[in-house]
Amino acid sequence: MLAQDENMILQLLISISFITELHKSKFLESKYFEEMHFDNASIKMYIEKIKIDNQGMLLMYLYSLLLVPKEVIYLEYQTDYDLLDKKIDSIKTASQSTYQYDKPNTQYIKHIRNALAHGKVEYIEKNIVFKDNYNDKNFFVELPLEKIGLLLNEMQIILNKYIEDLKLKYKSQ
Asked: In whole angstroms, what is the distance from residue 113 CA to residue 165 CA?
């Protein structure tokens, strides 16, 4: 039986994977969606307007892929997250940090998690900006929205590795 934290990560991955599949299958264009009744008709109208692939969903994905798993799997997959930091460094449009521990390598994942946890995320034109400020230390990174999918895929790969490792763990028990 899965531990509570393992189950939570599995359910988050399943949920975001399901939403991704709804988007890819053009669910909002389906007859089923057209005939769906919502208790609040405004919600259906907003879904039709903003679609599945929207800014709020991006934050939910990032929260699910970065914030929740941090305490459970971050150290176990440190190498993968370090590579993700390098990927972020290669696609960023701008960044700056006054945090001492960011020298020589900026810990983008750590800062993005903090920004998500504290609601310090902004959309500016075709970019997403994450800010992590604490006392007199400041950090920001600006990433092009068109490249965020690459990062989400990399994060999903890490969680998929975790799920595969869980399968092996419980298969041997």
From this structure: 24
Alpha helix (H) residue ranges in 68-141: 70-73, 78-91, 108-117
Report the alpha-carbon distance of residue 172 to residue 150 in Å, rounded.
33
Question: What amino acid occupies position 164?
Answer: E
Whether the CB-CB separation of 106 and 112 falls below 8 Å is answered with no
**First-last CA distance in the chain:** 10
pTM of the model: 0.88
Half-sphere exposure of 125 (CA within 13 A, CB side): 4
User: Which of 146, 120, 144 is closest to 131 using CA atoms?
Assistant: 120
Burial class (CB in 10 A: 0-12, 13-18, 19+), 121: middle
> Cα(92)–Cα(128) distance, rounded to whole angstroms?
10
Tens of pLDDT, residue by residue, the chain (173 residues):
788 988 999 999 999 999 999 999 999 999 999 999 999 999 999 999 999 989 999 999 999 998 888 878 988 999 999 999 999 999 999 999 999 999 999 999 999 999 999 999 999 999 999 999 999 999 999 999 999 999 999 999 999 999 999 999 888 77
